[in-house]
Each structure stands twice: as C-alpha cells, then as structure tokens.
Specification:
Length: about 250
C-alpha cells in the first residue's frame, strides 16, 4: 500500500507523465490538491483519462484533516495529485513527513513547474532571487515589495506568484500585482517600482495559449492576460544581451 505524490505539469490532463498515469491507474483513491494551482482542464476531463473518480482536496483536507489521506494510504494505493511539480513553490513536505512517520511507502513522480516554465521568457533561471507571493488581502502586506527591493539590489530577477481562490473561481491577475506594487511604492516612495519599471507578465505557461508580455509597468497594465494562472516577473536592471534579445520577442 502506497502514497504516490504525482506532479501533473502545467497544461491540461495530457501533461501527466506515463509513469504518473500508470500509478494513477493502479490507485484505489485519487486526490487532487486544488487550492494552490489549477490546470486548463476540468475535473471531468481528468476523470475521463484516469477512468476513475477524482476527489478534490482543499487546504483543510491536506493540511488539517490529512489523517484521511494517510489512513487510506495505510490500507490502499493512494494518488495525491499536484498541479505543476509536487514539491515546487507549494511544499507538501508536511504530508510527506507524516507519511514517512507512519512508515507508508511513498513514490514521487516529478513534472514541470512554474518555477522552471518561466525559462521561456529568456531570463536566466539562475539569476532569479527569492520568489514572493502576493495575496488577495494585501492592504498591509509589504513583504513582496521588500523582496523586490533586495533582489534588485543584488541584480537578481524576482518572480511573483499570485493568489487564487478556486472555490470562487478567482485569481489575482498580473494587472492586480502591478497595481499592488504601485500602491506600496506610493506609500514607501523608495523608487523600487516605478511606472517605467520593466516587467514580464505571464499566463498559462506550459500551454499552447500562453501569454507572455514584456514592457514597462504602465504598458502591461493595458494588456489582458486572460483567466488562466498568471505570474509577474520583475527582471534585474542588469540584463545579459541574450536576455534583452529574448525579452524583445515578448514586446
Ligand atoms: C503556489 S504556486 C504552485 C506551483 C506548482 N506546484 C508548480 O510547481 O508549478 C501557484 C502559482 O504559480 C503561478 N502559476 C502556476 N501555474 C502557472 C502557469 N501555468 N502560468 C503562469 N503562472 C502560473 C500562479 O501565480 C499560481 O497562483
């Protein structure tokens, strides 16, 4: 009896790996962690491919009531599906450690993550500094601004991951993220994020219908990034000439 942590990748139901799909087919219970990210397909489309029911696992089920998942994994094969990669950006380390403690057999199947898919922008992955998340309730939140300030000081790019609420079908958009940074800039006035700051907005990375736009903050505010998963990058002020060339593709 096992607990399978399986990354689903970023696009739709077909982005699961062959290895991941084989394990899902072997599973008696299939959970989909659905509060940190979303695929471009419905639960029904996943169930059709897997030929079995998929149980949506919200934050409470995974982080507070995880005994249900672990108890099942002690007597059955359980698949725990994660959009993107299993331990990237959202760490499901707590569930992993608790399963280890209970001596449950674990298998991990990795997949693509937003943390690497941003490589398509042309910005070099090893020149990214600390990643920050921007929540919906951000009235008194300043950490993302501080992270940007520190990364810029060290000539590093900054990736902002943006909040989502799958129950209400809501996401924080690239435009919301820019407005948030402008608002903090207005309060703090430290010149970290100006109207002319170069930004790269991305949505639906890993899908055919991805949107990537680079431009000044005020220019990106006029762009529509659609309804898919979105993230914002503020590049370092020192770009390699190849990075500059790549960013011109997305103007
Ligand atoms: C907390 S992270 C979870 C990362 C996931 N485990 C992974 O490995 O990709 C989710 C956030 O990443 C960003 N994101 C996820 N998938 C994306 C995509 N395909 N395109 C753009 N941004 C994405 C969004 O800001 C989303 O709210």
């Amino acid at each position: 009896m096992s607990l399978y942590f399986i990354g689903l990748g970023l696009g739709n139901e077909n982005d699961i790996s062959v290895k991941g799909l084989e394990l899902v087919k072997k599973s008696d219970v299939v959970y989909l962690e659905n509060y940190t990210s979303q695929l471009n397909c419905s639960k029904k489309e996943l169930e059709k491919l897997y030929g079995k029911e998929v149980i949506l696992a919200d934050r409470k089920k995974v982080e507070i009531d995880s005994d249900e998942i672990l108890d099942n994994a002690q007597i059955k094969n359980v698949a725990f599906l994660v959009v993107g990669d299993v331990f990237s950006a959202t760490t499901h380390l707590d569930l992993y450690l608790r399963a280890k403690e209970k001596e449950i057999k674990i298998e991990i199947v990795n997949n693509a993550s937003v943390l690497t898919a941003i490589g398509i922008t042309g910005l070099q992955l090893y020149k990214f500094g600390k990643t920050s998340s921007i929540p919906f309730e951000n009235e008194n939140v300043q950490v993302p601004y501080d992270v940007l300030k520190s990364n810029l000081k060290n000539n590093l790019h900054t990736l902002f991951l943006l909040d989502l609420n799958p129950v209400e079908n809501k996401i924080l958009s690239v435009n919301d993220a820019i407005r948030y940074l402008q608002k903090v800039e207005l309060k703090r006035g430290e010149g970290v994020f100006k109207d002319g700051t170069l930004c790269v907005g991305c949505s639906n990375l890993g899908s055919q219908d991805r949107i990537i736009k680079s431009g000044k903050a005020h220019e990106l505010l006029k762009q529509d990034f659609g309804k898919g998963m979105q993230c914002l990058i503020v590049p370092s002020q020192k770009l390699h000439f190849m990075e500059e060339e790549a960013l011109r593709l997305w103007r």
